[in-house]
């Protein structure tokens, strides 16, 4: 297992902020030679700590600026019901995140659509048709003053 020492932590912070940073710039920021820095990054990738790189998109410019967090309860707490629900949300492009959680509900979803009308269609025509869903509570995101998702 790869050790997460101070230098590796620093590398991970820098890459989380800017996954397109050059190895030369990254090495300078973390205080390593370029070759030592590259070896560490490659080991972090090989060990699975770094799972990939992605672009951070402005969803509003893509027509998906209406974000809703949803709490979903299922009628039965069986593996089959969970699998059926998870398959359904896998096929829903509006759902960008699905988290199975403990507590009063089984799932939290992050849904992104164009506007309230599109959200209503998703709520009614997608989630509303799933037989295993018993309750849905929706929270419209008004602002995200901190969002460190990579």
In short:
With 150 residues, the chain is α+β, with helices and mostly antiparallel strands. The protein has 2 domains: 6-46, Arc Repressor Mutant, subunit A; 59-140, 2-Layer Sandwich (Alpha-Beta Plaits).
What does the model show?
The chain is of the alpha+beta class. It contains five helices and four strands. The chain has two domains: 41 residues, Orthogonal Bundle (Arc Repressor Mutant, subunit A), CATH 1.10.10; 82 residues, Lrp/AsnC effector binding domain/regulation of amino acid metabolism (RAM) domain (Alpha-Beta Plaits, 2-Layer Sandwich), CATH 3.30.70. The mean pLDDT is 95. A four-stranded antiparallel β-sheet has the order 2-3-1-4. The longest helix has 13 residues.
Q: Which key phrases capture this entry?
A:
Arc Repressor Mutant, subunit A, 150 residues, four-stranded antiparallel beta sheet, Alpha-Beta Plaits, alpha+beta, 2 domains
List strands and helices in order, with pairings.
Layout lengths: L5 H12 L5 H8 L3 H13 L19 E9 L4 H12 L4 E6 L6 E7 L2 H11 L6 E8 L10
Antiparallel strand pairs: 1-3, 1-4, 2-3
Helix pairs in contact: 1-2, 2-3
Mean pLDDT: 95
Specify the oligomeric state.
single chain
* Fraction of helical residues: 25-40%
Characterize the largest beta sheet: strand count, sense, and whether it forms a barrel: 4 strands, antiparallel
Distance N to C terminus: 23 Å
The ordered string of helix (H) and strand (E) elements is HHHEHEEHE
Low-pLDDT sequence parts = none
Structure classification: alpha+beta
Shape, principal axes of CA atoms: elongated
Task: Give me the number of helical elements.
Answer: 5
Would you identify the CATH architecture of the largest domain?
A: 2-Layer Sandwich
Task: Give the CATH topology of the largest domain.
Answer: Alpha-Beta Plaits
CATH class of the largest domain: Alpha Beta
Q: What Rg is obtained from the alpha carbons, in whole angstroms?
A: 20 Å
Strand order of the largest sheet: 2-3-1-4
Count of DSSP strands:
4
CATH superfamily of the largest domain: Lrp/AsnC effector binding domain/regulation of amino acid metabolism (RAM) domain
